[in-house]
Amino acid sequence: MTQTIIKNHEEVLNDVLNQLKEINDFTCRKLETFYEIVVKSGRDTYAIGIDCKVIEGYTEEGLKEACIAKLKRVGWLKGTYA
């Protein structure tokens, strides 16, 4: 059951990042305890992490909002992302 939940969240995470990929290049990989997301924008590189245990509690919309909020915090997304 947990593996299915994690797989579903991986799919949602990839969908969210694919939407953002239209703006910039990114890589996402699952490490032992968290997902590492690295976004490349011109000369700049931004990295965020999302804890695997925390991600299980997100809905699809919550996961999207969490990714966007973290990317805003590190300075990649400025203003409002539509």
Please specify the SSE layout and strand pairing.
Elements: H1 2-21, E1 25-30, E2 34-41, E3 44-51, H2 52-55, H3 60-73
Antiparallel strand pairs: 1-2, 2-3
Helix pairs in contact: 1-3
Distance between the termini: 33 Å
Compute the average pLDDT: 72
Rg, please? Answer: 12 Å
Instruction: Give the topology string: H per helix, E per strand.
Output: HEEEHH
Largest sheet: 3 strands, antiparallel
Overall outline: globular
Tally of DSSP β-strands: 3
**Helix/strand class:** alpha+beta
The order of strands across the largest sheet is 1-2-3
Taking pLDDT < 50 over at least 5 consecutive residues as the criterion, the unreliable ranges are: none
What proportion of the residues form beta strands (DSSP E)? Answer: 25-35%
Helicity level: 40-55%
List the total number of helices. 3
Question: What's the number of domains?
Answer: 1
Observed structural traits:
globular; alpha+beta; single chain; 82 residues; 3-stranded antiparallel sheet; 3 helices
Structural summary, described in words:
- By secondary structure, the chain is α+β, with helices and mostly antiparallel strands.
- The chain has one domain (2-73).
- It contains three helices and three strands.
- It has helices spanning 2-21, 52-55, 60-73; strands spanning 25-30, 34-41, 44-51.
- Strands 1-2-3 form a three-stranded antiparallel β-sheet.
- A hairpin with a 2-residue loop joins strand 2 and strand 3.
